[in-house]
Amino acid sequence: MTMEGSRALEGAQAPFYLPQGDECDVFTAAHANGLPLLLKGPTGCGKTRFVAHMASRLNRPLYTVACHDDLSAADLIGRYLLKGGETVWVDGPLTRAVRAGAICYLDEVVEARKDVTVVLHPLTDDRRILPIDRTGEELEAAPGFMLVASYNPGYQNIMKTLKPSTRQRFLSIEFDFPNAEQETQVVAAESGLPAERVAPLVRLAGKLRGLRGQDLEEGVSTRLLVYCATLICQGMPVERAILAAMIEPLTDDEDVKRGLLDLVTAVIG
Ligand code: ADP
């Protein structure tokens, strides 16, 4: 499990995030009212950065858990571990967040095992409690605690969608890739490549995203665009950087790859 507990420092600058709309207001209102929030959208479009930015702005610690198909409720809540011959209880990231009044971000929550959603239910209604069966504790979430989850509705896996009974417990915001102007701004800021050199890459990304659902399962993410621009900024030839950051990550099929390279030539020259 990748897990990170980062402290928002008083007065520290929030990580750069360019809003796509009014999502910062919705997050702030959800936090103020102790309501859980679901972020829907494709991978690499800024959801994690948004949460990091908001946690810092609201001055709350942030616990991020990257969910995967082996992640169980115990991984989130905690377990007894043997330490120096003694059995001691060790809180998981969700329990730590509940105790500290922190923001807990469950990235790609649908990937996690079924028992995880059961644990989330009492935390997502007005009880805001976390029952810990193993210790007999029933923790009330400390003020400031907020549950945020993300999922990617684009994956064509019927087994991996959120059940309506779970979805209906969360406020939801839909994310997509930023529009061309915003994405150019984001990629330029993140990579250091001047905006006029980023703009053709963003145009290319738009074309590649148009192939989603046809030749490609997923379009180019903003994350990959940032990688591409970073390589170019450091002196890599444009075509090489595009191949490494915008073509190879999308497909293993040689025919599709050739088709994409033709598209690169048409858009970039
Ligand atoms: P997700 O969580 O949706 O998979 P991330 O938040 O990790 O995606 O975004 C990937 C990268 O894209 C970030 O590290 C950041 O460099 C960049 N990014 C995307 N959208 C924005 C935005 N609106 N503001 C700032 N950076 C962004």
Number of helices: 11
Assigned CATH class of the largest domain: Alpha Beta
CATH topology of the largest domain: Rossmann fold
CATH architecture of the largest domain: 3-Layer(aba) Sandwich
Rg (C-alpha, Å): 21 Å
- Assembly category: single chain
Please count the beta strands (DSSP E, at least 2 residues each). Answer: 10
CATH superfamily of the largest domain: P-loop containing nucleotide triphosphate hydrolases
- Helical fraction equals 40-55%
Strand order of the largest sheet: 1-3-6-9-2-10
The class by helix and strand makeup works out as alpha/beta
Descriptive notes:
- The protein is an alpha/beta fold.
- The chain folds into two domains: about 1-175, Rossmann fold, CATH 3.40.50.300; about 180-269.
- The chain is about 40% helix and about 20% strand.
- It contains eleven helices and ten strands.
- The protein has helices at about 25-30, 45-55, 75, 95-100, 115-125, 165, 180-190, 195-210, 220-235, 240-245, 255-269; strands spanning about 5, 35-40, 60-65, 80-85, 85-90, 105, 130, 135-140, 145-150, 170-175.
- The strands form three sheets. It has a six-stranded mixed beta sheet, sandwiched between helices. Strands 4-5 form a two-stranded antiparallel sheet.
- A hairpin with a 4-residue loop joins strand 7 and strand 8 (about 135-140).
- Helix 8 (about 195-210) packs across helix 11 (about 255-269) and helix 10 crosses helix 11 (about 255-269).
- It is elongated, with a radius of gyration of 21 Å.
- The protein starts with a strand and ends with a helix.
- The model is unreliable at about 1-10 (pLDDT under 50).
- The site of adenosine-5'-diphosphate (ADP) has 16 residues, from helix 2, helix 7 and helix 9.
